[in-house]
Design brief:
CATH superfamily of the largest domain: Type I PLP-dependent aspartate aminotransferase-like (Major domain)
Largest sheet: 4 strands, parallel
Number of domains: 2
Helix content: 40-55%
Strand order of the largest sheet: 2-1-3-4
Structural class: alpha/beta
CATH architecture of the largest domain: 3-Layer(aba) Sandwich
Length: 222
């Protein structure tokens, strides 16, 4: 047992040495994002006052308002909506999509089929469920290439006059592909905007927050 333990410890030390460089990179990302959050708190002068209870209808709730400002700064966005009422990521995504899409518009996912939980949000036309397609919003998707990249031929051929929102899922989800980096997403956005600068590029950044020093909103995501 003692020999087994020593051998195991040796393999652990070897493994730690091999990943030491990557761990330092991760620590640097953590430190950068930690300071980014602290800077936002300092910029908006967050204090114990903002954590006080509000009453009535919560009009002029400074704690809520400053939280939105902090999130917007941290994620490089024009504005933010941070509420405990969003029950899940799917709830949040559906709120965003229903907010910008109207009957006759099209949602086009260029990273293949999204998470299973979004399928009911997209729905089917006339299904009576209150889904996007039930409200006359059409849906299209372009499968990824065999190496996990964007099929730009399919994307360019698929974008039409009714296409309003381009959907990008950053995380691999339940697929075998790699998750997309912010740099890759930036390249996608730039190419989409060259095709049609009026298209809204929506990025599902689930599981991607703070994994790099910048976010999709820093590279043009709407």
């Amino acid at each position: 047992m003692a020999r087994f333990t020593e051998e195991l410890n040796q393999w652990m030390r070897i493994a730690e040495q091999r990943i030491e460089g990557k761990l330092r990179e991760m620590d640097a990302v953590v430190d950068h994002n930690q300071w980014k959050v602290i800077d936002a708190f300092q910029k908006h002068q967050v204090s114990d006052f903002h954590f006080a209870n509000s009453t009535g209808y919560a009009y002029n709730d400074r704690g809520r308002e400053v939280l939105d400002l902090v999130y917007a700064d941290v994620f490089g966005a024009e504005a933010a909506l941070v509420r405990p009422h969003f029950a899940s990521g799917t709830h949040t995504i559906s709120t965003a999509l229903f907010g910008v899409l109207r009957p006759g518009d099209e949602l086009f996912y260029i990273t293949g089929r999204p998470y299973d939980t979004l399928h009911k949000v997209i729905g089917k036309q006339g299904d009576g469920s209150g889904s996007l397609q039930d409200f006359g919003i059409t849906y299209r998707e372009a499968a990824l290439t065999s190496d996990g990249g964007i099929d730009w031929d399919a994307v360019e051929a698929g974008i039409s006059e009714t296409t309003k929102v381009i959907g990008i899922q950053r995380s691999r989800g339940y697929d075998w592909r790699s998750s997309f980096s912010v740099s890759q997403i930036g390249e996608m956005i730039a190419r989409i905007k060259r095709i049609n600068p009026e298209l809204i590029v929506f990025v599902d950044n689930c599981y991607g927050e703070f994994t790099e020093e910048i976010e999709p909103t820093d590279v043009g995501a709407d």
